[in-house]
Design a protein that fits this description.
- The protein is an all-beta fold.
- 0% of the residues lie in helices and 63% in strands.
- It has strands at 2-5, 8-19, 23-26, 31-34, 38-52, 55-68, 84-95, 98-107, 110-111, 122-123, 126-137, 140-147, 155-160, 168-172, 177-184.
- It has a nine-stranded antiparallel sheet, with no helix packed on it. The chain has a two-stranded antiparallel ribbon with strand order 3-4. Strands 9-10 form a two-stranded antiparallel sheet.
- The protein is globular, with a radius of gyration of 21 Å.
Length: 186
């Protein structure tokens, strides 16, 4: 459901899904396989406001449960799905053409890929901060972004080894990343 009053917008929603035959790549057999049946449910909350004429604030929070409902892993969590995620962004309009933004995001702990048994350690939770500046000059847009300003060392994907107990592979996120882009509207 949505609520709006003046410059304040609120949203709350929920969902419930039952899935059958979800495709998953299994390194154990080097092929795609169908997962046992799962259910996913959760709550999504978001808010947006303009507390000052040049300042906008947006925030969101998601609570997700993702469980196997049948088969040998019934009742276990589906790997790679965090229970908690959140984001908060602050925008400052320096002028009508120039905007500065700071955005933080949080991703909670979750089980590694290939850990349908939920017996291996969990991937760590993390929080990151990004900064962005945008300038619009006529048909041109110039954007500069710094992702992961604080240089957090973490990974967003990891897979548990089925052949070597206690081992895993992780794919790290960039510690700090700078992007500049220029675009033109036609």
């Amino acid at each position: 459901s949505d609520y709006r009053r003046g410059d304040v917008r609120l949203h709350a929603g929920g969902y419930y899904m039952k899935l059958n035959d979800e495709i998953h790549y299994s390194p154990a057999v080097f092929s795609n396989v169908n997962l046992d049946a799962t259910k996913r449910y959760g709550v999504e909350l978001s808010a947006e406001s303009r507390p000052l004429p040049r300042v906008r604030v947006k925030g969101s929070y998601n609570y997700t449960r993702s469980l196997f409902t049948r088969g040998q892993f019934a009742g276990n969590n589906v790997p790679l799905v965090p229970r908690h995620t959140a984001a908060l962004s602050l925008y400052y309009d320096v002028t009508p053409q120039v905007t500065l933004a700071a955005s933080g995001r949080y991703v909670g702990r979750r089980y590694f890929d290939n850990d349908q048994t939920n017996t291996f350690m969990q991937m760590p939770d993390y929080a990151m901060l990004d900064l962005k500046a945008t300038a619009v000059l006529g048909a041109w847009r110039l954007t500069g972004t710094i992702h992961n300003v604080t240089g957090v060392k973490t990974y967003d994907y990891g897979v548990r080894s089925l052949s070597t107990p206690g081992k895993f592979n992780a794919y790290p996120l960039p510690q700090r990343e700078f992007n500049v882009s220029v675009s033109r509207s036609i």
